[in-house]
Structures are given as C-alpha cells and as structure tokens.
Design a protein that fits this description.
This protein has about 200 residues and is mainly α. Helix content is about 70%, strand content about 0%. The chain is globular, with a radius of gyration of 16 Å.
Length: about 200
C-alpha cells in the first residue's frame, strides 16, 4: 500500500510532538562546527546564553552583529535559523540554514538537522498534496544525510523520528526514537514521541 504524505491531527499526542520539537532542540546545548572564530569568544557565549534562555530577539541581534565581523560563522547562522523557525518565519529560516550548509560544505549535522526541521514544518503548513510530498521528501533526504554523518546523534535521531512520523513510516520512526532514547533515556519529549509512534496504525 502506498503511503500518503498527509499530516493528521487526529491524535493529540502527534500534535503536541510537532509543536514542541523546535523548543526542545533549540534549547539544547549544541556545539558549532565550521566557525571562523574561537568558540569561547565572549560574543558567542553571550549569543548562546540568550538562546538558551529563550530570548529570541536578543539572540537574533547578537547573531547578526557577530556575522558582520565573522560572516562564515556556522553557529551564528544556525542560531539565526532556529530563532526564525520559532517565530514562524520559515522562508528566512531556510535562507540562513542554507547559508550554514554552504559554509560547512553540507557536512555540518546541526545545519542539516535545522534544514530538515524547516522542510518538515513547511510540510506541515502546506495545504496541497504535491507540496506536502515535496517537503516531506526533502526533509527525509536531508535528515538521512545527517544520519550518515552521525548515526548516533541524539538530536538528529529525534528530528528523524518526527519526520518519519509525519511520513507515516512507523518502522523508521521507531528505529530513530530508540536511538534518541539510548542517548537520553529520561528525555520527556522523546518518551512522548515514542508513545505517539507506538500509537501509529
């Protein structure tokens, strides 16, 4: 039977999973790769602190200011992308995620994961079947690239589980969430996501 890539809101657990994924991941203590400046610089630390506190406006300001002096800094680009995702500005978020991927030669798993999440959210917001299929296919191909580079990364597997859940692929969603839980067995979001996957038909 062919899978139909349509987002279902019949399950409240599914909806909760999709709403909270960005918040959980954007506040994770992630390391940047491909940066053009030392990771312990004062500006970078301040940007991280603002982002961890959920201060989106100041994170954006600090990231933009930092990028003026360090235009190839991948971390600042990704944090900008994540901030714009949280504001619902997916087109702007996509631009910064693509810049981060370009600066890292498409090898930064954080950038790949960010891009995959954006495609997933575009899938969720799309109204027609063709657009939905386009975005979920892009999300899956992008997260696969990240999984090839770092198959045991907790964040990547968490996002992969969400994407496969959207694509109605229970087998792959279950595999991804098990990897994520292996790294963070007490993560409440992952546990709820597992329940959502187990309830899939």
């Amino acid at each position: 039977m062919k899978k139909i890539y349509l987002f279902s809101i019949s399950s409240g657990v599914f909806l909760v999973a999709f709403i909270f994924i960005a918040l959980m991941f954007s506040q994770a203590d992630l390391k940047a790769k491909g940066s053009s400046a030392p990771m312990d610089s004062k500006e970078i630390q301040q940007m991280r602190e603002c982002h961890m506190k959920g201060d989106i406006d100041n994170t954006i300001k600090k990231a933009q200011a930092y990028l003026k002096a360090n235009p190839d800094n991948v971390e600042a680009m990704i944090r900008l992308s994540e901030c714009y995702v949280s504001q619902g500005k997916l087109a702007t978020a996509e631009e910064w995620a693509k810049k981060a991927l370009l600066s890292s030669n498409n090898k930064d798993i954080w950038a790949l994961r960010a891009m995959a999440e954006i495609y997933r959210r575009q899938f969720e917001e799309s109204k027609d079947v063709n657009s939905k299929k386009k975005y979920i296919d892009l999300a899956m191909s992008t997260i696969v690239k990240a999984l090839i580079i770092s198959p045991n990364d907790v964040g990547v597997n968490g996002e992969a589980a969400c994407i496969y859940l959207s694509a109605n692929d229970k087998v792959k969603a279950k595999e991804a969430i098990e990897f994520a839980l292996a790294g963070e067995p007490k993560n409440e979001f992952f546990l709820k996501l597992k329940e959502a996957i187990q309830s899939m038909k």
